Amino acid sequence: MLDCTPKEIKERTGGVINPAKTCQPIGAMYAALGIHRCLPHSHGSQGCCSYHRMHLSRHFRDPIMASSSSFTEGSSVFGGGANLKTAIKNVFAIYNPDVMAVHTTCLSETIGDDLPTIIKGAEIPEGKVVIHANTPSYQGSHITGFSNMVKGMVNYLSTASLETKKEQVNIIPGFVNPGDMREIKRILKVMGIKFIMFPDTSGVVDSPMTGKYEMFPKGGTTLAELRDTGNSKVTIALGSYASGDAAYQLERKCQVQPLIIKTPIGIKASDEFLMALMNKFTVDIPPELAEERGQLVDIMTDTHFHFHGKKVAIFGDPDIVIAMTEFLLSLGMKPIHVLTGTPATGGAIGHTVGNFEQEVGEMLKQAGVAGRVKAAGDLFELHQWIKNEPVDLLIGNTYGKYIAKAEDIPFVRLGFPILDRSVHSYLPVVGYKGAMRLLEMISNALLDRADRDAKDQDFELVM
Amino acid sequence: MAINEKVLDEILSQYPTKVKKNRKKHIIIKDPNQARQEIEANTRTIPGIITNRGCAYAGCKGVVLGPLKDVVHITHGPIGCGYYSWLTRRNKAASSDPTKNFISYCFSTDMQESDIVFGGEKKLARMIDEVMEIFKPNAITISATCPVGLIGDDLGAVAKAAEQKHGITVMHFNCEGYKGVSQSAGHHIANNTLMERVIGAGELEAAPGRYPINILGEYNIGGDSWEIERILREIGYTVLSVMTGDGSYEELKNAHVAELNLVQCHRSINYIAEMLETKYGTPWLKVNFIGIQSTIDSLRNMAIYFGDPELTRRTEEVIAKELAEVEPVMEQYKKICQGKTAFCFVGGSRGHHYQGLFAELGMETVLAGYEFAHRDDYEGRDVLPQIKLDADNKNIPELHVEPDQRRFKLKVPRERMEELKKKIPLSYYAGMMVDMKGGHVVVDDLNHYETEQFIKLLKPDIFASGIKDKYVVQKMGIPAKQLHSYDYSGPYAGFKGAVKFAEDITMSFISPTWNFITPPWKNQPILEGEIVEGGCSTC
């Protein structure tokens, strides 16, 4: 497995081998699916749209709908305005969504298609909405694309229509699974705080089997809610890379106070999330959540000897990896290789949304862990790091399984995409509940290995 | 359940006028009384229609080039294209030298904004240098993506310079995603360069074994080609190369010494098949190793071609042995599948090939079609002279080859060739429609709206298509079988493959999970008690 990867590391500047990221539009497509009755639209040649739909379908095992402008060589030379106008007309006539959310590809971006002008000149039926975001694939990653589409929602829809702000919070959950969005909403309900979550893909990409196919399922943030985000008191952006930019934009446009915090993975980030809500809305932490936290700490204490001192390599999207690294440190583990494919700046133009290397580097330093941290890295390099300094556990998306097999490392699947296991997208990794689930996953991976490797006389009943 | 022109018209009436006019030409209800029915195919996709189609890059790098295992395939573009074509098609490959098998790697120049602005040629050249230093592949391909054509990167120049610098073959493919109207353009682009640069580049002048053949248009999805090769080797054939499943640059180089080329996927490889005939005098035979009967027919046709009694005897021996193994097993599956109906909508060849296998299970394919096939795949190669290239397809280069002065050899004398052509599909493909029954529907570039409508109308028992449709169809309570990825199963080709397919299809029908869709509170009486009002005449 991966027998062509040498141990010796040479500096490379020609590109990427085995990427730890993909391109913007898939993130924009995912974000757009989090709007109720929305059809994402890819303004480019149709290959992108098919690839993005396929990839999301494989991760969620659910229908992923999107249309394309289907550029030909002619439109690539003379501009794709006619294609987009035709597409808008056809989409509303045939599929009748309430919203079309248009994103771009490297093709239409390189050509320089002027989307606002094209959309203004298009036939849009009464009461229907077309929004857009520019998502050039040659900047940032899929996380940047998600961020850009959420920002597009703010640009087109968020409206400050009231004199005084409502006692409600906007939650931008970031590029996480519907299971995570459901868990975040549950926490808010238990806290008794009014909220608008956007985007919200729960009920869209984890829809139930009923025997009836719904092209536009029940889930998704409604247009009314999206407009009302301008009237909220605070926006909590979970994960600076995926959600920060839109929160700042909402501040600029509607004077909603932004608060950028970590994706609430692990105990500290979950605490931080609850504390932020508590402070902004002067509510008490309900006993239900306090009990969950206590259970989590109980498990951590009970099982710390499974984890302590174990070396970990972790890769994935920056918001998830930052929070997860923090959690690993809380468990006494040593995340010695930490890598994301997304560039440090996240790729957003004129705005630094985070600093992966600095943030993770700081955490490791404080914990006294000597580790390698890299943004804009690839899995080829991560594999070489592991060959040079082996680990006890690998955490990342499905592509990690090749390294795990090659180096015979226990492997925990986390993040996007997970193409070779099911259920993962339905259940949370965020909040205290999600942290318990992560603990179980890590424990199982490590202890299954211990069982597999044990000599008969060392095989334990109780562990 | 039957469909007629009127019903079809009702479906299409939901479309805007222009769309209706267009789509009408892509849908045919098979009428056995007509000698030939003309379908429109290989035309541009309607924007916003929700097509299943992909792009030329996918057809070139993803389908044809990608499976060549000893070659490093560099995607010159932003990260997505390389990423999405990384390990997602299940073209399996094994190598005796795993350090020369790059199948699980993804190489991309990961173009950034500065590369779009200032050009990406230098970065590409650096990537080639790094690949040479680290991997030392037998050859390198460079595949262009959408922005590359627009910014004017000269891939040919970079490839040529790299060849001089490193002394290996570096091929470039201008398969920008917007070329043509679908994956099909990419097949053509890949075929041209493989023919020009690889096939025939080897030293061999004679084949290293008896009955030397190539298998063309077979990508070893789920191990298909390994099962086909197993059977062929058992009969006594020498398989020189497979294009391109588990294929290699090293094998492809000597593909010119074959006595016969087998064509499994006509759409993707017919260009090379034709050019091999022109250049080296090697005829091609349309084969189909999907389905037991089709496999037997193909093997017998091959035996007829070689006309060697010993080979014929061996062919029948192997057929008999294989049949004895698979027939009893197929019987048990047939009992469950018998009488069921299927939709079969796959890329450019399986929409036809699997109909026979469904039929062997007692199932009828009531709707079939392709994403990107051309008219000849639907109507047969007779129609080729009538196909006019439209503006969208005109700029796909046509490669013209001449007979190789040194190596051209008529493998079969002309007279015998004509005799053979009457018996077997030699250098000929009759297309899909000829095998379909009256009333069955043929749809080109089926879209989401039509998928829903035809399912409502024809209520198939199973829908065979791809990943984008799968979960849509399953949500309706109808089993969906992926015939691109085989739902991570396979092989489905050859004798053993037919059994595996039958097993998988049967499983999808008899799985208990379908029984749980309706919750018990929905199909049982809600209230227990008596109905008082107006129900009972005796009270």
CATH class of the largest domain in chain A: Alpha Beta
Oligomer status: heterodimer
**Number of helical segments of chain B?**
21
Please count the helical segments of chain A: 17
Kindly report the CATH topology of the largest domain in chain A.
Answer: Rossmann fold
What average pLDDT do the residues of chain A reach? 97
Write up what this structure looks like.
The complex is a heterodimer of chains A (463) and B (539). Chain A contains 17 helices and 14 strands. With 463 residues, chain A is of the alpha/beta class. Chain A has helices at 24-33, 46-60, 73-78, 81-94, 106-111, 115-120, 142-157, 178-191, 223-228, 240-254, 266-281, 287-307, 318-330, 356-367, 379-388, 400-407, 431-453, and strands spanning 16-17, 38-43, 67-68, 99-104, 129-133, 166-172, 194-197, 232-238, 257-261, 311-315, 334-339, 372-374, 393-396, 411-413. In chain A, the strands form 3 sheets. Chain A has a 5-stranded parallel β-sheet with strand order 12-11-10-13-14, with helices on both faces. A 4-stranded parallel β-sheet of chain A has the order 3-2-4-5, sandwiched between helices. Chain A has a 4-stranded parallel β-sheet with strand order 7-6-8-9. In chain A, helix 13 (318-330) links the parallel strand 10 (311-315) and strand 11 (334-339). Chain A folds into 3 domains: 24-156, Rossmann fold (3-Layer(aba) Sandwich); 166-286, Nitrogenase molybdenum iron protein domain (Rossmann fold), CATH 3.40.50; 289-453, Rossmann fold (3-Layer(aba) Sandwich), CATH 3.40.50.1980. Chain B is α/β, with parallel strands linked by helices and 539 residues long. Chain B has a domain at 56-177: Rossmann fold (3-Layer(aba) Sandwich), CATH 3.40.50.1980. Chain B has helices at residues 5-12, 17-24, 56-65, 79-84, 113-118, 121-134, 146-151, 155-166, 183-198, 224-235, 249-252, 266-280, 292-306, 309-337, 350-360, 375-379, 414-423, 448-458, 467-475, 494-510, 520-523, and strands spanning 27-29, 71-76, 107-108, 139-144, 169-173, 212-218, 238-244, 260-263, 284-286, 341-346, 364-370, 441-444, 462-465, 480-482. In chain B, the strands form 3 sheets. Chain B has a 6-stranded mixed β-sheet, sandwiched between helices. A 4-stranded parallel β-sheet of chain B has the order 3-2-4-5, sandwiched between helices. Chain B has a 4-stranded parallel β-sheet with strand order 7-6-8-9, sandwiched between helices. In chain B, strand 13 (462-465), helix 19 and strand 14 (480-482) form a beta-alpha-beta unit. Chain B is globular. Classes of the chains: A alpha/beta (463), B alpha/beta (539). Chains A and B meet through strand 1, helix 2, strand 3, helix 3 and helix 4 of A and helix 3, helix 4, strand 3, helix 5 and helix 6 of B. Strand 1 (16-17) of chain A pairs antiparallel with strand 3 (107-108) of chain B, so a sheet runs across the interface.
